Amino acid sequence: MAVVAFQGELGAYGDEAVRARFGPPVEPYPCKSFQDLFEAVASGKVDYGLAPVENSQAGSINEVYDLLRRYDLYVAGEILHPVNHALMALPGQSLADIRRVISHPQALAQCDRFLRELGVEVVATYDTAGSAKMIREQNLTGVAAVAGLGAAERYGLEVLAESIQTIRDNVTRFVQLQRDPAPREEGPQKTMLFLALAHQPGSLYQALGALARRNINLLKLESRPARNQPWEYVFYLDFEGHRDDEPVREALAELAQYANYVKVLGSFRRAVPSSYS
Fold it and tell me: Quick check: is 166 catalytic?
């Protein structure tokens, strides 16, 4: 049975994504933080990790991108997991009783319109399901959590409102982390990498040209501050194709000429929107 690390408590969206990605039998391994998740995979404590990299509404999870650079792990796959936020509290509470709402910052951001209209104090915590667990364990009245329906069921809370996210089609992309590169699978392919470029005019233009000249479709471009040089940045790229495909091999060779550093995080089968519909 595979042991798979995720950030949060049992009942969190990461827990749901682990079960959807690996199916039974699987042993989800809860981690307090994203760094704990990466450390669990790197140390061999677990077989795999599943970490969120971006949400269709709230955008990228920057901490995870930074950890992808720091740890020597491979991205071996991805899953697009639907997020359906609910508001939950101790049984017997009503919306009128709620004065404070707690949850992970990403969840709170995704429900900003509902929470503004509710007119409550909003407090960030480390996890969605962890917030539900806290309400149950501390018997908190007047406090509600934003989490998935599975968390309400697991911790015995009453659902006060469902589908409270501002944008109904709310999806989080999780990537599978492991210590070795994944074998190639059938289907559309995707490659993730990061690179550091010289701080000079045209360096990013040249790098992207290596893809464009080979008709390689760029899927995402993300910049993050370099850790050792203030006001300099590293770039994360997602693009179509596998590192073993000839056009991608040629593009990587050309990128190496322009970049100070290139690291391929992984090539794997690309998840498509129909996989979460």
Answer: no
